[in-house]
Structures are given as C-alpha cells and as structure tokens.
Design goal:
This protein is mainly alpha-helical. The chain contains four helices and two strands, in the order H-E-E-H-H-H. Helix 2 packs antiparallel against helix 3 and helix 3 runs antiparallel to helix 4.
C-alpha cells in the first residue's frame, strides 16, 4: 500500500474554500444532525444601577477630576515645574481610580442585593470581575 503524501500548499498558494470559510460570529449547536443558531446574549445591564446616590457620587467625583485636569492644563500653560505637574497628574489618576472602583462597587452591590436567583447574582458578580480584570 503506497500512500502519496502531498506537501502543504506554499504560502503564496490560495487556500481551499473550506480553509478560508468564515467562522461564524456566534457558536453553532448541532442537535440530531441539524445546525441550530444559539440565541443572542441579552444586552448588558446599564453601568449604573437605579441607585441615584451611587450615580451622584461618581458624577461628583468626575466633576472634581474635571477641575483637576483644567488646573493641570493651566499649570502646563504657565510653565510650572515638571515635578509639580507630575504630582497633580498622579492625584488626578488616583481620583479616576477611586471613581472607577466606586462605580464597580455600586454595580456589585446592586447585583447582590436585587438578584432573586443565585445564578443571576453569580453572573453579575462574574461580569463585574471581568470588567475589573480588563480595566483596573
């Protein structure tokens, strides 16, 4: 039994149509030989839950940061020393971090306090954890 091995196509050789077929955006489920599309995921909940105090707190923090950034612009335009500007930049960065963590804490608190099912609570906390891992 002689098998002939064919070499892989050269880099400049176009691939077969099967190899270049687009991968679907959503995974497919195969049941009894039929291909079914998976239902789309529900949209993520709003960034701020309906707790006005949490939202007000973050907005106030962002407004203070906005004032800090305006002050930084003024410092640079007036030719203030590098260390002075760097110190104020670091303070603005820390303030942004605190606003971010306050926003995320409000989201987690909302998920834990309003969820009727344990699985929903777990999903919301997991979603918040992914946001923290990605942006913190």
């Amino acid at each position: 039994m002689n098998e002939t091995l064919t070499p892989p196509p050269a880099a400049d050789t176009p691939a077969s149509p099967e190899a270049t077929a687009e991968i679907p955006d959503e995974p497919q489920v195969v049941a009894d030989g039929e291909t079914l599309e998976t239902p789309p995921l529900p949209p993520p909940p709003p960034c701020f839950p309906p707790r006005p105090q949490s939202q007000r707190d973050v907005i106030n923090r962002l407004r203070r940061i906005e004032g800090q950034v305006r002050g930084l612009i003024d410092m640079v335009q007036r030719g203030r020393g590098c260390e002075d500007v760097a110190q104020q930049m670091a303070a603005a960065r820390r303030a942004m971090d605190k606003a971010f963590y306050r926003m995320m804490a409000g989201t987690v608190i909302e998920a834990v306090s309003d969820s009727e099912l344990e699985i929903n609570t777990f999903q919301e906390v997991e979603r918040s954890t992914r946001i923290l891992e990605k942006y913190a």
